[in-house]
Specification:
Blueprint: H1 4-8, H2 10-33, H3 40-69, H4 74-98, H5 101-109, H6 123-190, H7 194-214, E1 220-221, H8 222-237, E2 244-249, E3 258-259, H9 265-274, E4 282-291, E5 294-302, H10 311-314, H11 318-330, E6 335-340, E7 347-355
Parallel strand pairs: 2-4
Antiparallel strand pairs: 1-3, 4-5, 5-7, 6-7
């Protein structure tokens, strides 16, 4: 926590450092490098010039830019700054006239020759106006960049809030959808084997704990997600006949990494919802692998149309639709999803790859 005050006051340090470097180079280093002893009144003019530029910088930064430039009153912004620049030059001209700076500087550079009044050299006044303009220009640039950064921060926070709200909505839809299908499966099982139905309820209770506690978080451990999928597959096996051939390959141990909870389940759930038949031989293939930071999921199954009188038949595919949206929100540009549902083998194939870090 000791670095917090430094981070908080970092912009102030930058301003002080910038002015110190600018003032040292323009008002100190060059005069000192001339190896001449400059009179006190000349140093007073240097201090006055620096002070006026300081005022112009922050007056433009805190007043003119917000009041005129950011409110799209651009002509007024330029008019006020032009008048301020002219006033800056006239103040320095008045200083020179009042203290007779022409004679003072003649004494410094030509001490052995008499001073003769000459018309004023406006080159230095034009130079002073450009120095003023440079100060105001830098002030405007910094204020504009800070405004852009602040607006961008607000925009990103707003976008993040929208994403979080949408993710919460999507998860709220997926979870009931999952339990809706699972409970329907257990209901069907009670008509076949009560003991298997009891075993299924025990597995479902363990899965419910995962859903209740892990899906409240944005991320969970991959090992927990895979354990959840294994429980789901085991639960589904209880209702399958011998005509369904399973090829399930889920690694027992993986290098831990975080993943969004219940992100893979809808693809696997879809296999069991549409890939089995009570009248025909069928197969389901599920392959999950992790190499480095890349997680791969491959599923393959026959396509059977569910009866329209069942909850599965009436389902609108909300699980897969929401999962695709969650992938877009959580892993933008970090995943690839290929779905092949139109082929001569009448099979449904999913090939998903996610870069988790």
């Amino acid at each position: 926590m000791s670095g917090s005050p430094i981070k908080k006051n970092f912009p102030v340090f930058i301003h002080i450092l910038g002015w110190a470097l600018f003032g040292s180079f323009v008002f100190l280093l060059r005069p000192l490098s001339m190896e001449m002893e400059m009179p006190g009144i000349w140093w007073s003019k240097q201090a006055l010039t620096f002070f006026l530029l300081l005022i112009a910088f922050y007056f433009n930064f805190f007043v003119l830019v917000p009041r005129f430039l950011f409110t799209n009153r651009i002509p007024m912004f330029f008019i006020v700054n032009t008048l301020a620049g002219i006033s800056f030059v006239l103040l320095l001209v008045g200083f020179d006239e009042y203290f007779n700076m022409s004679a003072v500087m003649h004494e410094v550079f030509r001490p052995n020759t008499p001073h003769v009044d000459k018309p004023r050299n406006w080159y230095w006044d034009v130079t002073n106006f450009f120095v003023f303009s440079m100060s105001v220009g830098i002030s405007t640039s910094i204020a504009t960049v800070q405004k852009w950064q602040a607006d961008e921060k607000v925009r990103l926070e707003f976008e993040q809030q929208k994403i979080n709200a949408e993710l919460s909505y999507l998860k709220a839809q997926i979870n009931p959808h999952f339990f809706f299908n699972t409970l329907n499966n257990i209901y069907s099982l009670t008509n076949i084997d009560v003991e298997k139905a009891k075993t299924a309820l025990l597995k479902l209770s363990r899965m419910m704990r995962y859903v209740l506690y892990e899906t409240e978080k944005n991320h969970t451990l991959l090992s927990k997600e895979l354990d959840f999928i294994r429980d789901y597959v085991e639960l589904m096996k209880l209702r399958l006949s011998s005509r369904v051939h399973l090829d399930i390959n889920i690694p027992e141990k993986v290098d831990e990494v975080e993943i969004a909870p219940m992100l893979l389940l809808p693809f696997i759930e879809n296999c069991f919802k549409h890939g089995i038949s009570s009248q025909q031989d069928s197969f389901i293939k599920v392959f999950i692998d992790k190499k480095g930071n890349e997680l791969k999921l491959f599923t393959e199954n026959h396509k059977f149309k569910a009866s329209e009188n069942t909850p599965e038949g009436n389902a609108s595919g909300i699980g897969l639709t929401n999962t695709k949206r969650r992938l877009d929100l959580l892993y933008p540009s970090k995943y690839s999803l290929g779905i092949d549902s139109e082929n001569t083998q009448n099979q449904y194939k999913v090939n998903l790859s996610i870069r988790l870090k």
